Each structure stands twice: as structure tokens, then as C-alpha cells.
Amino acid sequence: MKFISYNNTSFKKTTYYKRLPENEREVFDILSSVFHFKVNNYVLEHLIDWETVPNDPIYKLIFPRKEMLQPTDYKTLLLLHQSGLDEKTLFQFVQKVKKKMYPEVKHAETSIPKVNGVRIRGMYSNFETIVSLFPDPMAKTCHSYCSYCFRWIMFNNKEAQQNSSYTDPNEPVEYLRAHPEITDVLFTGADPLVLKAKTLQKYIDPVLDIESVKVIRISSKSLAWWPFRFTTDKDADELLKLFKYIQSRGKHLNFCAHFTHVRELENDVVKEAIQRIRDTGTVIRCQGPIVEGINDTPKDWSALWNTQIALGMVPYYMFIEADHNSESCFRIPLAKALQIFQEAQKKTTGLARTVRGPVFMNDLHRTLLDGIVTVNDQRYFALKSLQAPPNMVGEGTIKLIPYSETTKDAGDLIALFSKEQEARSTTVDIL
Ligand code: SF4
């Protein structure tokens, strides 16, 4: 299959646009003037079930939804569109709306490594033993864009990309050599696997020379959005050779595959792609967020995990969708997320017992929503900090926060876990 991608303008020329119910077309026109839209021919032809649009989960996974904008902004944009599109006014208003929604990355400073006081571009030190790297070409795009993506701000935004990425492949070397405690390097993006194998190798090679780095992680949704990347793309074989080469250099290669719905695993081409990756010795660990209207039942998750295991992959994390700005409409109540996780595990082969979740992914602590406990007749959510960033205390700590059936918000997790200056793995605080 030849890769064809569509943006908000070219998609309107397809027959699929005409198939959208009228109100969905209106939402698409308005929302895609604010958020970047990208979809490819495989997703359109083989993943979305057009008979069930707008309720189809893959449709919801790609197409923006009305709730992503504040009602007043939506209304104003609608009026601007209906009034014959004065492009200049529209552009200015869209910029204003976007600015309001720029995700606030709290405490970002603590995650940015420095050498001699100078910031290393494109490197984020998530936890003591892991860093994420953002080489410039990897920060640019994906095979399709997910409606819930918190990285939307990076797409088509040269300034944001340049500020948070690096171009010289040797940029992270000095820091990594000076920090032998860093064993895992994560290449993330956007999606690193949109790049040619040669370009990927250029950025991965300098890291392979560092003895203390033992694990190379590549985070990608390409198996779901474009499985031909591993089968019939021109350099598919070269990419798989690169996977073998990384391991021949003594590193463990972990493919962090992003899956949201079992449909993404059902076509023959994705099964073939998974097998070809596994044949290189690479371990595929799967993760994805629990998202309102897309995968918010126990059946969705047990089907997803059972299929992943049947195909030889490892279910790894169920994430709680980020809650800043536009993503908050994708989040479900914490109590419901926990219940879905627990019910789904009961319906899944015992091999899925190692999957962790629901886990908050966007704060400095990687925090597990571990269960509900009752103390003195009061119910609480038990939260556990699985990992904390370097120089921050709290890792291993358990905190209790008041239970609520409807809340989607656990409050400020950084403040919650930072309060305890002397972290002990057995600490339990009741707020
Ligand atoms: S593939 Fe990943 S980075 Fe790309 S849009 Fe989806 S969530 Fe965002």
C-alpha cells in the first residue's frame, strides 16, 4: 500500500468527508482550523468502520470532538466560519484560542538536564535511570494524529520543535557519559518511525557507543497507524536490520507500542508486522490511555490485552488520559478507570497480571491509582508513586486521597508526593 496522508484541507476533497453526518462535518471544519489533523489511507480504508460513524472508536480516535474547545470559543469560531470566512480575523482568533490551550508543563525545569549550567536541547530526564531524547527529525510528525494527543502543539510548529529538540546526533553524548546511572534511553517524538532507517541510525548510533546505556526504547504508534512501515515500505527491511543491529551492540531493544483499541490489531498486515519485529528479537511492550468513548469498558481492555498476548506482545501500561486543556474531555472518572482496569484483568489470561494501571503519565511522578481503601468508614483512593524524577523524593510512597465516584482529578500529584521530604517506601499519608 502506498502511503497517502490527508490534512484538514485535502481530507475535505475525499468521499469520506462527504460521508460525515452534517453536524460532524461542521465540528470537523471548526476544530480542524485549531487542531492539526492528519489521517492516512490505511486508517480511512481499513481501520474506521464508516457504517458506525460517529460512534466508531477509531473515528473518535482520529477526528477532533466539539468538547475540545470551550463552548464560547466554538460558538465564535462557528460564527466566523458562517460569516464567510474573513481569513485574517479567523487566523487571529484561532491563534488566541490556541494560546489559551498551550499545555502548561509544570516543573519542566527539573526535567531538563544541563552541562555546565547550559541546557541540553531535546533531552528530558524523566527518572533517575531514564532519559527521553528528541532529535529534531523525530519531533515533527506521526503517520496519523490522535484526537487526544497532548503533543498537538508541536505539530507544524517550527519554533516549538526547535526549542525542544536537537539536530547534532552527538548532542546527548557528553551528558550520558557523565551520568552512568542512566541505563535507558527513550527515543520518542511525535513518532520516530516516520523517519527513514538511515536517519534513525544516525541518531541512535552515538548512544550505542555508551557502555552504561543498556536499554534503547523506541516509542511509536506506527504498528497501529501504518503497519506497512515494517512490511512493504521501501526501507522496511533496513529498519528491521537496524533493530537487529541495536541488539548486536549489546543493548536490549524495547519497542513501546501505542495501542488504543483492539481493532488496531485485527488486520493481517499488522499481525505480519508484529511477527517481523519479533523475529528480530525485539520485545514489544504495549501501552495506551483509557479514553472516554473509545475504550472505556472492561471488554475493550480484556480484548486488547488478550490479543496483544496472543500476538506475542507484552501488555505494559494503561494510562489515565492527561487532564490539561483540551485533553480533559477525554478523561473518565478515576473510580471508573480503576473499575475497568480491575474487571478487565479478571477477564484476561493470567499473563496480563503484570500490566500496570491506571497510571498518571503527565506529572513528574509516575503514579499508580492502586485501589480503594476504607479507613474509619471513609473511602480513599490509594495512590502510589512508582517513579520519581532525580532529586525528588517520594518514590515508592503511598498516599490516600478522598474517594469520589465522579472526580476525574487527583489534584496536584507533584505537591502530594513532594510534601513527604523523607520518603520511605512504607509511608502512608491520609489527607
Ligand atoms: S501517535 Fe503519539 S505523538 Fe502522534 S498523535 Fe498519536 S499520541 Fe500524539
TrEMBL record:
GO terms for molecular function: 4 iron, 4 sulfur cluster binding. The keyword Transcription regulation does not apply. Keywords: 4Fe-4S, Iron, Iron-sulfur, Metal-binding. Signal peptide: none annotated. Gene3D superfamilies: Aldolase class I. The keyword Transit peptide does not apply. SUPFAM superfamilies: Radical SAM enzymes (SSF102114). This is Lysine 2,3-aminomutase. It comes from Aquimarina algiphila.
